[in-house]
Amino acid sequence: MNFETRWLAGLPAFSNLADQRFIVLILQPLFEEANRMRRTLALMARTLDRQGVGVVMADLPGMGEHPLGANQVGISDIGTASNLLCDALTSQGRPVLVAGFRAACLFDSLPGASANWRFSPEPGDRLVRTLLRTEIPEESTEAHAFINGQLVSRAFLDDMARLPLPNPACLRTLRLATDRAEADHHVEASPLWRHAEPGEDPALAELLAGDILNWAVTCGIS
Amino acid sequence: MQPDRPALSDDIRSLLSDVLGIAQDRAATFTDTTELFGSLPELDSMAVANLLAELEDRMGIIVEADEVDCDMLGTFGGLVDFVDGKLSR
Fold first, then answer.
1. Tell me, what's the ipTM?
2. pTM, full prediction
3. E runs forming strands in chain A
4. Residue A196 is nearest to which of B20, B53, B58, comparing CB atoms?
């Protein structure tokens, strides 16, 4: 299975991606939302893998197992890492479709990508407002906010709050049916990223994988 | 169009069920006097942040920090009243 989450020397380890029809670069939500969605994203990745699609689901700087901690990360680190990652994948000779989730969509307009697909994106100011609602002031400092059990640079939050959603050329957006914002398609599911505990939604994982596959066909990369 | 109060109450029961992970049949028993924050163990401070964000997404409203208080989150009826008031503006 060509599904990797590790980072080695700043880039994820991957193998055999050149054998795949195309490569899906999954950009996971940031911070706690990633933990709550990870199991469903893994299910989605496995479904794509079974369809002969290469999948890379790396931890971005400041997130998950990435060696750079949330207290050290700057907004440019995430953009730079995403670009490096996409360049490394396009060098495999296969088209790359970027699948962005939630806050990661702020960083998904990558020059090397052949197509973009999004799930429930939000502009930076809304995301930061929600993050700061969970801040514990007693544990925070002037330079860092204590959010969801970790210190996050206030400079990072300030920069993220100023980020609009980019407009890549070949883009499809999905949202939940309960979300009033515009989208190409709304799907019936629960907002996993807002649940108290990490959950798993196999039906949603299958639906998202299918939609990504269809979008790749529409964009002429599959 | 703004939903009538019974419909809005049902929408908020569904939202609470989704965000807090409580069974729909349990949420269906919530009445205006059902106590929420401080009485519903699933509704901790983290869950409040997610509840407010989900309210904003679903209802198309903005909830300011100084609007979140015991009246708003103390009871189910208080929460419905708050959203109803926001939608009426």
1. 0.78
2. 0.89
3. 3-4, 7-8, 11-12, 23-27, 54-56, 96-101, 115-119, 144-147, 150-153, 171-176, 185-187
4. B20
